[in-house]
Amino acid sequence: MKQFMDKDFLLSTETAKTLYHDYAAKMPILDYHCHINPQEIFEDRKFDNITQVWLGGDHYKWRVMRSNGVDEYYITGGASDREKFQKFAEALPKTIGNPMYHWCHLELQRYFGYYGVLNGETAEEVWNLANDKLRNDPNMTVRGLIKQSNVFMVGTTDDPIDTLEWHEKLAADATMETKVCPSFRPDKAVNIHKETFVPYIKQLEKVVGFEFHCIKCVKKALSQRIAYFNDHGCRASDHGLDYIPYVEATDEEVTAIFKKAMAGEAVTKREADAYMTAIVLHCAREYAKHGWAMQLHYSCLRNNNAVMYKQLGPDTGFDAIAITDSGEALAKFMSKLFEEGKLPKTILYSLNPGDNAQLGTFLGCFQGTEVPGKIQHGSGWWFNDTKTGMIEQMTSLANLGLLGNFIGMLTDSRSFLSYTRHEYFRRIMCNLIGTWVENGEYPDDMENLGKMVQDIASNNAKRYFGV
């Protein structure tokens, strides 16, 4: 029997062990998509206890607690941090087969030096050990955590109306060794069918300094903000779409739809799709001009629990996988941009793992010469960043494309302890490749293999994002 999460955790062959320990483990991390707060990086936030750095805002952990019947009072409610930690510790042993069990223990090992097992009985021991280190170890601040994790680049997620004040300050700070780049997330300007649309457009008008009378005004405003983000080091955009829309319409038609929404009238699904198509196409053309990568996340059914959405708002753990028929629309969307010569570098993520093969076949339809693997099948996203989900995503990519050009993992996280997810991914990736080698499916050429896993772990992303 193997020891629990030892140095060869998830590495089942000698080839896998060599690839991970000698090649992948030491590579810098490019966390090109996450949701951490740049202000906390600049201010080098210090945490009072492990609940603050571990449970605050982490809806993955909240879902674990809810599934164990924990009252919301101990999750997002008024319970003390110690009480919340206790409830999570009591639920954690039941997560066998869930990546949460591995993530948590990797974080306890790497950042707190704790190699035991967290449960209800050990919670007090872990609480005291972790809090002592958080309070007394100067390397346990936000910047310290980033540095000891060997993070080369962080890509935050930022709204078009953001001033990017904290990115400016970070860029001017000579002591900040890690690149912190904003990413452009224009969802609120795209989702014309949602209740947040009209108030958001009013905010956008104030930021750009003019009123919007037509669709060209919206496009002009977004172009201005894209240029502003580009001046602040932005290398990527991100679109969180329920599904991929594609309905072609004239500017006059889209203007009428826009005015209808701004007047408070409900728009039809076809009208919403026409508006969203026009805006996302416009943004994509701008991204191509600036050399950005465009990330498209879709097939998510959001805010399913109406009671909890009203109580807690979005992004609190009540989303699910959606089954959408986005393939034809995505093909038309990419074909239109390709025809114009304005298809940007594109990373495709579907929350539905049933779309893996479809995405893998799309890649070969629209590649370009700007960079190897211009069109990417994104890493296992959200509910798919499990061991099984990552193996399935990489196997599908290998079957249908070029795994050697894959840009690898991202945390998609709100926690500064989540960088161990890159270690988790790298171990799984090295074990997958190592198994193929030891099965005689690929040559035992360690020089080539070592370079390949280093590229997937780090180098490909550096080239792809131009950092």
Tell me briefly what this model is:
The chain is of the alpha/beta class and 467 residues long. Helix content is 50%, strand content 8%.
Describe what you observe in this structure:
The protein is of the alpha/beta class. The protein is 50% helix and 8% strand. It is built from 20 helices and 10 strands. Strands 4-5-6-9-10 form a 5-stranded parallel beta sheet, with helices on one face. A 3-stranded parallel beta sheet has the order 1-2-3. Strand 2, helix 9 (165-172) and strand 3 (179-181) form a beta-alpha-beta unit. The chain is globular and about 70 Å long. The model has no long low-confidence stretch (mean pLDDT 97).
Distance between the termini: 43 Å
Q: Radius of gyration, rounded?
A: 23 Å
* Number of discrete helical segments: 20
Low-confidence stretches: none
Oligomer: single chain
Tell me the fraction of residues in β-strands, as a range.
Answer: 5-15%
Main sheet: strands, sense, barrel? 5 strands, parallel
Largest beta sheet: strand ordering: 4-5-6-9-10
The geometry reads as globular
SSE topology string: HEHHHHHHHEHEEHHHEHHEEHEHEHEHHH
The assigned structural class equals: alpha/beta
Mean pLDDT: 97
Total count of strands: 10
Q: Helicity level, as a percent range?
A: 40-55%
